[in-house]
Design brief:
alpha+beta, BirA Bifunctional Protein, domain 2, Rossmann fold, 5-stranded mixed β-sheet, binds glycyl-adenosine-5'-phosphate, cytoplasm, aa-tRNA-synth_II/BPL/LPL
Length: 435
C-alpha cells in the first residue's frame, strides 16, 4: 500500500512538472500510451545519447541503424512472430473483461466481477495494418507495426556486408519505436502498447558467442551505472528454459526494484543463427558470411542486448524520487545524476527589478548556454521558491547573479542535495555543471 502510494506520487510529480502525460488525455486517454513532455524528452534523450555514445560512438565494431517501422509481412512470418508472438488471454463470461491468463492468481474467476472465466486463448500481440489503398480482402496489403526493432537489422544483414565489408564480430545498433497490443497495459511506463527500444544485434563466429555474451553483459551493467541507477536496485536473472523467447538459447534479464515489485528492465539474449537462418529460408537470399581468413562460409550467431527506453525512464524516475527535509521544510524531488538530469543548472538574477542584475544574469546565461545547452533561466518569485521548483525537477545546481557579481565576476552556486552554497568564478561554471 505504501509502495503504491510512492508510485502515485511519482506519476503525479512527473505530470505536474512536465515529464510525462497520459496519451490523448483530453479525450479520456488511450490505454497503454503516454506522451513525453519537454522535461521527459530531455531525460529520455540523455539516456539514449549516453547509450549511443557507449555502444556505438566509442566502439569500432558497431554500426548505427534506423530501419522502417513498417516491413513486408513476410519478415514477421519468417521471424516466427505471426505464428507465435502471442500471450495467453481469458475472457469473463459475465462482464466480458479480458485478462492475461499468466498474470492471474485464479484462472477460473474474474478478478473484477467474480464471473466465470472462459478457456485460455492465444492472442497475437502484433498491431496489424493495411498498406496503401487496398481492399479489405487484400491479404497482400497486410503489414504490422514492428513488435521489436531487431528484425529491421536482421533483414539488412546482407546490405551491411555488401556496403561496409565488416569483419566479425560486429554489431548493428538501433533506437526506435516498437508496438505491442498488450492485453493488460499497466504500471505507468512499464507495460505500454507503444514504446521505444535500444537494441544491438551483435554478430559473432558460432564458437565465440560466450565471450561476446559476457562482454555485453558487463557493458549493460556499466551503462546502467553510467545513468546513475544504484547497483543494489538491479538484479540479474538467468531465464530458465521454457520461459525464454522462441529464438533464445540463453537469456539473462536485468530486473529493477520498481515500487510495484522487482521486474524486468532489460534483457540479453543469445539468439544463435535463428533469425538469419529464418530469413535466409524465407527470402531465399544467401545470408552467409564469408570469412577471408578461414575461407569458410557460415551464418554468424547473434548476441542481443535489448533495453526498453520507457522502462529505463521509469526506473530512473523511481530511483531518483526522494523525500527529505531542508531548512525545516519537507520536499519531494528527483535526485537525478548530473549525467541524466534534464536541466543541468538554472540561472537567476537575485532581484528581478534591478536591470543591471538582470542584464548581467542574461549575459552569464547566454554564454553558459553555448557550452551547456541544457540550462534554464528563472526569475519568477523569490529565490527560495526558485530553489524549490528546480529541486522538484532534479536540477543539480542553481546559479545566482547578485551585486558582487557586477564587480568581481563571481556567482553563488547552490547544490540541490545539500543546499550548500559557494562562491565561484563565472569562468569555472561550465566545468562545474556539465553532465
Ligand atoms: N528484441 C528482443 C525483445 O524485444 P523483449 O524482452 O520482448 O525482447 C525487450 O523486449 C525490452 O523491451 C524489455 O526488456 C523491455 O525493456 C521492453 N519492453 C517490452 N515490452 C514492453 C512494453 N509493453 N512496454 C514497455 N517496454 C517493453
Amino acid at each position: 500500500m505504501v509502495e503504491q502510494n510512492v508510485m502515485e506520487k511519482i506519476v503525479s510529480l512527473a505530470k505536474r512538472r512536465g515529464f510525462v502525460y497520459q496519451g490523448s488525455e483530453i479525450y479520456g486517454g488511450l490505454a497503454g500510451t503516454y506522451d513525453y513532455a519537454p522535461l521527459g524528452v530531455a531525460l529520455k534523450n540523455n539516456l539514449k545519447n549516453i547509450w549511443w555514445r557507449r555502444f556505438v560512438l566509442d566502439r569500432e565494431d558497431m554500426y548505427g541503424f534506423d530501419a522502417a517501422i513498417l516491413m513486408n509481412a513476410k519478415v514477421w512470418e519468417s521471424s516466427g512472430h505471426v505464428g507465435g508472438f502471442a500471450d495467453p488471454v481469458v475472457e469473463c463470461s459475465k462482464c466480458r473483461a479480458r485478462f492475461r491468463a499468466d498474470h492471474l492468481d485464479n484462472e477460473e474467476l474474474c478478478p473484477t466481477c467474480g464471473g466465470a472465466l472462459g478457456s485460455v486463448q492465444e492472442f497475437n500481440m502484433m498491431f496489424e495494418t493495411k498498406v496503401g489503398a487496398s481492399s479489405v480482402e487484400d491479404n497482400q496489403a497486410i503489414s504490422y507495426l514492428r513488435p521489436e526493432t531487431a528484425q529491421g537489422m536482421f533483414v539488412n544483414f546482407k546490405n551491411i556486408l555488401d556496403t561496409f565489408h565488416p569483419k566479425l564480430p560486429f554489431g548493428l545498433a538501433q533506437i526506435g519505436k516498437a508496438f505491442r497490443n498488450e492485453i493488460a497495459p499497466r504500471d505507468f511506463l512499464f507495460r505500454t502498447r507503444e514504446f521505444e527500444q535500444m537494441e544491438i544485434e551483435y554478430f559473432v563466429r558460432p564458437n565465440d558467442w560466450e565471450v561476446a555474451f559476457q562482454e555485453l553483459r558487463a557493458e549493460i551493467l556499466a551503462y546502467l551505472s553510467d545513468i546513475g541507477l544504484k547497483t543494489r536496485s538491479l538484479h540479474e536473472l538467468e531465464v530458465p528454459e521454457g520461459e525464454r523467447a522462441h529464438y533464445s538459447k540463453r537469456t539473462i534479464d536485468v530486473e529493477f526494484d520498481y515500487p510495484f515489485g522487482q521486474k524486468e528492465l532489460c534483457g540479453l539474449a543469445y539468439r544463435t543463427d535463428y533469425d538469419l537462418q529464418a530469413h535466409q529460408t524465407g527470402s531465399q537470399v544467401d545470408l552467409t558470411f564469408f570469412d577471408e581468413g578461414s575461407k569458410e562460409r557460415f551464418l554468424p550467431h547473434v548476441i542481443e542486448p535489448s533495453l526498453g527506453v520507457d522502462r529505463l525512464v521509469l526506473a530512473v524516475l523511481c530511483d531518483a524520487y526522494t523525500e527529505d527535509e531542508m531548512g525545516g521544510e519537507s520536499r519531494a524531488y528527483f535526485k537525478f545524476s548530473r549525467a541524466v538530469a534534464p536541466v543541468k543548472a538554472a540561472v537567476f538574477p537575485l532581484l528581478k527589478n534591478k536591470p543591471e542584475l538582470v542584464a548581467k544574469a542574461r549575459a552569464v546565461y547566454e554564454e553558459l548556454k553555448k557550452v551547456v545547452p541544457q540550462i534554464m533561466w528563472d526569475d519568477n518569485g523569490n529565490i527560495g521558491k526558485r530553489y524549490r521548483r528546480q529541486d522538484e525537477i532534479g536540477t543539480p545546481s542553481c546559479i545566482t547573479i547578485d551585486f558582487d557579481t557586477l564587480s568581481d565576476n563571481t556567482v553563488t552556486i547552490r547544490d540541490r542535495d545539500t543546499g550548500s552554497q559557494s562562491r565561484v568564478a563565472i569562468d569555472s561554471l561550465p566545468a562545474l555543471i556539465a553532465g
